[in-house]
Design brief:
mainly alpha, two-stranded antiparallel sheet, 2 strands, 68% helix
Amino acid sequence: MANIYSGIYTKLKDRNCDIKDRLKLAKFAWFSDKVILPNKEQVLIDFLSGLLLNKKRSNVSENETCLVWRCLYEVLQSKKCHSPGKSKQTLIIKPSICQVLCNSILLECKKNSGCTADIVGCALAIIRSPTLSYVFTSKYDFLVRLLSNVLQLVVQTIKDDRVIPPDYIQLLQRCTSAYSVSQRAHPQQEKVFQSVVDCLLSPILLLENATEKYPELKDCAEILTNVLDQALFHKEHHPFYENFLSSVVGKDETKHKVSKTIESFFHSLSNLLSKQKGKDCNTDTDKMASRYLIVFFENFLSYKCHGDKPLTGFRLFVHICGLLGVKDDTPGLCKPPLSEQDVVAVVSSLLRSLLKHDIYSQPQDAAEDNVQLKFYSHVLLVVLQHRQSSSFFSCLESLLELNHVILEAKMTEVIQIAWLEESAEELTGKRLTFLENFVTKLFNTYSKLRQIPKLLNLLLTSLNGKVPHSLSPLLSERISTGLGEIVEGLPQTVAVEVWRLLLKAIEEYLPKLGREGKKFLFVAEIFAVFLSNVKIADYTITHLTRSKVKEVMADTQLNVLTPLAEIVTSEKAVCSEPIVFSTLLLAYSWGELCLLLEEFVPESKRSGCHQQNVYKDLEALFTISSNTWKELHTIATSTNQKRDLYLWKLLTTLVLKAVNKGIEQSSVYVSEILLRLFSDVDKSFGEDECVSYGMLWEISAQNYNMASLDLGLSMVPLCGTLLAHKTTQQITDLVVHIMVHGKTKSRCDVHSQLLDKCQSPEIQESWSWLSCMMTSALQALPHLIRENQNTPRKKRRPNPSSLEAVMNGLCDSVFTTADKSEQMKKLQHISNLVNEGMLSVEGKCLQEVETSSLVNCIQIIAVIQQSDHSPEEKLRGFLGGLALLSQGISSEGKTKEEMLDKIITLLIQIVEKVGQVPVFHLLDINSYICWLNSIIHGKNKTFSWGLCRKFELFLEMSCRVMVTDFQILPKLLNIITKELQDSQEVPCFLAPILKEISQLSNRSYLKGDVISLCQTAVSQVYLNLQPLYATDRKSAETLTVSHVHVMSAIVGILPKDQILQGNINCVYQFCLKVLDNPEEDVLVTSASLGFLESLCLCIDTKKDLLSSEQKIILWRTLKKLFYDFFINGNRQKKTLKNNHLGREAVEKLLYFTDDHIVSPLQDREKEQSWHWMKKKMIFDGCLSGDGRKLVFKQIQSTIGALVFSLGTDQFQIVIETLLSDCSLRELVGDDFCRVLASLHLWNQVIQNELTEEKGSVVVRAVDEMMINFQSAIIQLKDIKEEGIFHHLIVPLLSCQSDMLNFGPALMSSQCATMALQSCGYIPSCILSHYPAFLAVCGVLTSLIVHHTETIFKVIPTFISCANRLMKSLITFGNQDTLIDKDSINDAKQCAHLLNKLYALMASHKPEFSKVAVYMVANYVTEIQKVTLHPVVKRALLPAVYAVLDICDTHAVSQLHVVLNQGVKEVFKMLYADYMKYHHYTGKV
């Protein structure tokens, strides 16, 4: 029996006893089971509570108070405190002690007594206790005070820059959750509003301000923000807001009862702005409050607190502006609580919210005496006083978007302050972007209003105002482009009006050019943009407009260009550079337009520029004397400004264009003009060189070189055949030198841009340019590399077959000047040099290779090879690359791999596109093949694995060219026969040659003598190789990739009776052994699968190379391999979120499982698919990393070939295996990938070309397979994990759809009905995802197309499935959930699929017209619940209209009667649109 301690209660109550002893005794009594007191736990809790409540009477000191809190904390942490005792009674915590606890949280924190953590622990223990939490949560006032104190505690901790203890955060989370529930249930929302404003507003704002530094508070801050929103924007407060704002802002004389809560709220915000509550919490309280003002205003409008009265929203805007110091009775800011920049920033955000929620309506405001317009105009005045604010332009944009009239009254001042007075030096980065956005929007707005002349007039007026003469207003590229687009769209009469307006402005500036040169430059830039984009040279232009244009063109020349030229060239005048530039700019813009207009007049009336002198030709074009032009050229050169020189070059291009129209042969004059464009280009291109150059007035020393190059290259196609070869060669030498040399970043950018320029279609059309470009690139190669000469200097002799000799030969002028025969002779000579000295086993080492420059040079040659104009250029590129490769094989150093990789890549590209070019007629193919063989199998070579594969690919591509050339083929066959006689090893070139012969022999157009020649040679090869394919185990272990490839080719070439079965079995066993561990070597695995595929395809003779037993073994091996790759590939995929919408919900398998397994004999393109994929992987260098993809694709291809070769009995075994693997028992385990793999195999096997007997086997198996599918779907519908459901249900439905597409020949009516039932088991939440929707819609579409009669028997079930699709699509297409573009596109595609299905149903009107009314009712009922995205709605309406087409008048009347009132209104609108836009009335 337990001991009974007597007198404990007396000692606890004894005040003379030391408090420490009493606390020890209380703890002992609480935790000891031997102490028995009546209602012990409650007595002890009351004792500790009494000490805290009556500290003075109990003589408890401050230090002892901490001990009491600690003891209470330990007691509350025990399990006894939170679970009922034996008497089933729970503890009772007095509200008074909780009140003390709540007050002590902040009090002890301020005292820094050290017991704050214990107090927080006590509060946390109580609030998360299921039996004690009611003490805090039952009373709203107590809970809000607790939350306020906890918030202030956390904020104080943040202020002290201390780590927030986890208990603080947990207590805050608990209090926040409890308060959120209590707030929503509170019956007096006005009281909630007042308590939130008084107790929570400031702490919540302070907490939100700290979430960036303390991310662990982010979740709490979000909940508290919602708490704030629910309190401030509850629907009960909406009338109070309106009354308050009407009385304060609207000065409404009607006496409304103004809510004190609303008034106190704004008073609190005002206090926060004036920092009256920021002393103890945060020094940035004003900024924090200003940020909340933005959020408050946005939420006020979002929660529709203004109801249907936009004026209330505007009044709130006015009131907030008043809090910020923006008042309509003062011209500027009136005692702003914030800095001026912050005030403008807040106003900018408020204006954006006004725009977003359409608060301003011009007609409504006009009816209210333009109250809003007047205040917005006052806001504009305030904003204009603070141009340096970062939100300055944003405010102007918002005001412009509200109403252009707001700015128009002060437009000259706006343009001056916002644009014209901005210094170009200050306009950088974001501020320049903001200016461009505003100016562009300004032009676009007035363009829509069709008031561009008015805006330009205001702009010119502003320029004549107070703008300093020293400032040059900025007209950036973006502004110019936007203005140009607007000018291009101007009506003809408006364009002429603008022209005269600008012309008048130019004329007014002529007398005062000396002091207003920079302003004149700005007007000239605008005029140049106008002339460059005005649409007056078109066949749509009227005769009246054309005559007016002719007049203004003459006025421009007479009143502007000629006087300007005279002023600039006058001896007395000393013109500044802006005036010189403006003169050249206007002249060029006018001349370009003049030449364009001449295209629309007879040739006899065009300008005659045939004087062979630039100045005289300019005189003929402009009627300005040649001496004046000469002086202008001299002045432009003397200004030392690159933009003046560039403009002079542009003027010479006008001459070039004019001269081009009358010359048909090569012209020295044209060549001279073109060379001048490149004459002063600096080849060095410094580090600060800029690639982009923008507008003409933005040309500078940093971008002049690139601009000149771009200009010159743009004129090359124009000149065409008029250029002499020497001129073209000089230009290409310059371009290649700039592209090749230099390693700086700017040089890389220049190289990239020039390379893109050389790839343009215009350049690629010029044969002369390509030839000279190739010559320049080949000339640059010897300067980038040097040969290593190990011999002493005295013994060195010129090597006629060296790399330099080959390159010099390839750069001979014969390739640019002589005819084709001379070029071929030269190429033959160069080929001899390559044959004699280059194609040796050991190449010569290249030293001091400038790898980056070499790579650039190779890229140039690769670009030239893309053109198909000249076979000779392909030969030049091939020989040059081959010579370079042969000499670079023995190079050493880190850059060797990169250099060789670029060279071999270039050669592969050339050989792939060589076509009928006789490449190997020039080379000695014996030396060529042996040279490549030595590189690939060389013992001393240390190439990387990827580079070796590229060499093999290059050899394979070369063999294809040689085999398809019947003149070379006999010689090639002799080479391989002799090579096998001289060597016991299989050369690396044998397999690709035999492979190409195998493919060649399958072509129908091949002559018999060629086939006989190939088979004879291959027979001899096979006889020489027979000992390597002996049947013993030792021979099988010595086989290599080459042996397998060779045997694969032999099987495809020779008749089957000439091949020994033992050799076949040897390679067959080797391949099976490889497939047991397929990941060891990708190349061996690929070769083995290729051999097995070739073996399976050899069934066109009486002798079958594989026995029935071997085929079944092979099937099991391939099936196991397929499953392993399939399952591993699925396991490597990332886990997807269940709630994700769109096609990504079911990610595609890791490998190419969407490719059907078909027989290569059925589709020759499919036969080459994995071959092409392998070459692509090698070329891209990703075979080593992505080799599994290739192997998996080959597995599928091999399975297709095996299925094609199986007999009926063997095919029966295969089908039975698949039926077993797709059975229900496979779904029991957690890993469902095996079922998925079997399903995929089944689906792809039935897609194969089957004989009649095999087809019968499949038909008999379909019934059982459909039962398996049905059972699987029934089992899956109870699985709640959407990921598993998605990955299995979609393939199941897709497979059924594929089977249904075969029609009644494959599936009976009962099976088709089972497929329809499968669609009914899909949950609606799954149907709302794109893949499931696509699969179900596919099944229904296949049923109505291929099993129409079956569907007519089960129309109600079919309509039910279609209605579920419609419902899920409407749920999916909800505008609130559709955010990203992919999801919108998926929903749109679903709508198109449903439209197709409904159209198919509508095509059977007699059967479906009776149920069409229910389909329409389903649509209008669901559409009322959500707001469809406009894109989805537009795509879905045709489906509904198709159903309405088959509804008769009785059905429509029925819908008008039976539908609910809200749904009925939706239907009326739908039917009205249908009758108006879709219904056919018999009239056109």
